[in-house]
Amino acid sequence: MRVDARDDALRDDAFDALVAFVDAYVKIVDAGEEPTSELWSPSDETFEDGTGDRATRASLTSAFWCPVDAFDAPRCAVEAAIGALARSGRATASTARIVGAEWWIQDVAHDEPPKVYHTDCDVVMCDDGSSKRSHPTSASVLYVAGDRGGGATCVFDQTTSRANAGELEPTTPSVVCACGVKKNRFFVFDGDRWHGVLHDASEFRGQRVTLLVNWWTSRPAGARSLPKRFVVDGGRCAVAQSGSMTKVERTVVSGRAFADDASSWSAQRLPTDAASGVVEYRYEAP
Questions:
Q1: Percentage helix, strand, coil, to 5, in the chain?
Q2: Is 254 helix (H, G, I), strand (E, B) or coil?
Q3: Are strands 153-156 and 175-179 parallel, antiparallel or unpaired?
Q4: How many H-runs (helices) and E-runs (strands) does the chain carry?
Q5: For residue 275, what are the contacts with CB-CB under 8 A and spacing of at least 6?
Q6: Are 192 and 135 in contact (CB under 8 A)?
Q7: Which tens digit of pLDDT belongs to each residue from 110-144?
Q8: pTM here?
Q9: Are the C-beta atoms of 188 and 85 separated by less than 8 Å?
Q10: Which whole number is the average pLDDT over 227-256?
Q11: Between β-strands 207-216 and 159-160, what pairing exists: parallel, antiparallel or unpaired?
Q12: Range with the lowest mean pLDDT among 3-7, 186-190, 274-278?
């Protein structure tokens, strides 16, 4: 299972621009603004991929699509950040087949339940009534706020069964990784992995704000074209640069059986003391 965490992911100016965008976005969401037909219609697609936008309007909580050509010609601070992460070489094992990135923003209060375990996927219904699932090449998290706390992201070396989406393969994980929250930290893992957010055991009383980015070899059906209201004046944002991408220290916990910690994971809690970096639990075969 590929898991990687890097601190100082974006250069300061790029991260500050991203924070300003996210803050404005969150204020709009908190205000309960209804999209208008003009501002929320899809932006003029300079980067046409032939799919178009399958929704008449995007909602504030939509996932949005950043085509690969926008990595080097961004239209907003999020696309600029995505481009910088892509060029860093840390987003995927290989960017050769990536056609774009799906992104969305999560803003979760300390007293709200954490995101439940799941896999990210695109589901397409076939003419015969069956469905086909596909996963991103990589899934990633950029922590926008949270130096004071917030629940860790947890990833299991399991994925959903192709035959039954409700079953996990393997049935018992041999590796589980938990990444602590830190501002401007970039955490990336295989896109088909079972993952979620853990409860925060600290005294943190703020908001856990993240930019989620999935990296795809084909555009997922649910990703909306960028609305006009997100496009900067003139249609082009400054190209961003990555930061030092300093590798985050990893603590390995071994010599345990998964059964010893199963109740903690089921409750979405870390089974040992929290760490500020990445904790990797290596479990003995059952």
A1: 15, 30, 50
A2: strand
A3: antiparallel
A4: 3, 16
A5: 180, 251
A6: yes
A7: 888 899 999 998 877 676 666 778 899 999 999 99
A8: 0.89
A9: no
A10: 91
A11: unpaired
A12: 274-278
